[in-house]
Amino acid sequence: MKKLSIYIDDDGNYDELASELKIKIEKYFKDVFTVTTYENWSHRTSNDSIEDITIKAINASDIVIPILSTQYLQYLTQNIEDIFKSIIEDDSKYLIPIYYKESSWSSYDWVVKSNVFPNGEKSLSELSDKEKDQEYSKLFLTLQKIVDSLDANKQTEKFEKKEKVASTKEKIVFISHNNDDSDFAELMALHIEKHGIKTWVDKSKLKVGQHWREEIDEGIKSCDAIIVIMSPEARMSEYVTYEWSFAWGKGIKVFPIMLKQTSLHPRLESLQYLDFTNKLTRPWNELIDSILEIQ
């Protein structure tokens, strides 16, 4: 199998990070990848514009790793964003953004639909050295799985779960939550399913390649309602915000659940939330009745 090419893109302010990541990948994988950075490409094609250099580098690569920051998102042109969006739909190329500096990336569809590292709320620059090493290990595992899949006759079954919720008259609800509230999300699913209502719970946001977000979108669209488990962590989560706002835009019923006291997004404030902060008085019946009443 020929070497796969990786391009690490930044806005020119994080050349050191791009170079460090290049060295780590080449050391870990040895002869598997050819890794280049924007700095490498700018030396090759010095007469081209920044946009032209970036587009050439992206088009020449199998895997693109953008280093996200506020400056980076501002620096991107529409043409580059369009290419990123096309990669999302391309089974032979992969987009793996690294969330390096604090930035509001949830409004960028191509980021939301990608497998972002780190997967938590903190940016890479906010992590300790030990935590950074853990994130690099996760990234390397993802790269290895891409290699393994392409090596197996370039089949993409490992990257696209084709399971769809079967068409049924039963009610189906999507449970949106922050990773810190996963235990309660599973408890809620058990309560709801006892009443013949199916649930769709995303148990792992760390999936290979870029296709996992499309699976989430399809999951939401197949549901009659979305339950948003609110907590301070969920309030700050780009993922949770994306999920309920995506459902809202599709006209799907949204049920906010207050698990831990927090302020609500202004749009959610217009809805009546159910108070689950007290374990002894949680209104399970009211929630079930509200779901069953959906037409």
> What proportion strand?
5-15%
What's the overall geometry?
elongated
- The assigned structural class equals alpha/beta
Note the gap between the termini.
54 Å
The arrangement of helices and strands along the chain is EHEHHEHHEEHHEHEHEHHEEH
The average pLDDT value, as a whole number, equals 83
Number of H- or I-type helical stretches: 12
| Main beta-sheet annotation | 5 strands, parallel
Helix residue percentage:
40-55%
List how many beta strands DSSP finds: 10
Cα radius of gyration in angstroms: 21 Å
Uncertain stretches: 153-168, 205-210
Folded structure, characterized:
With 295 residues, the chain is an alpha/beta fold. The chain contains twelve helices and ten strands. The chain has helices at residues 15-29, 38-44, 50-59, 70-75, 78-88, 109-112, 129-151, 182-193, 212-221, 232-236, 238-249, 284-292; strands at 4-9, 33-37, 63-68, 94-95, 98-99, 172-176, 198-201, 225-230, 253-258, 274-275. The strands form two sheets. Strands 1, 2, 3, 4 and 5 form a five-stranded parallel β-sheet that branches. The chain is elongated, with a radius of gyration of 21 Å. The N and C termini lie far apart (54 Å). The relative contact order is 0.10.
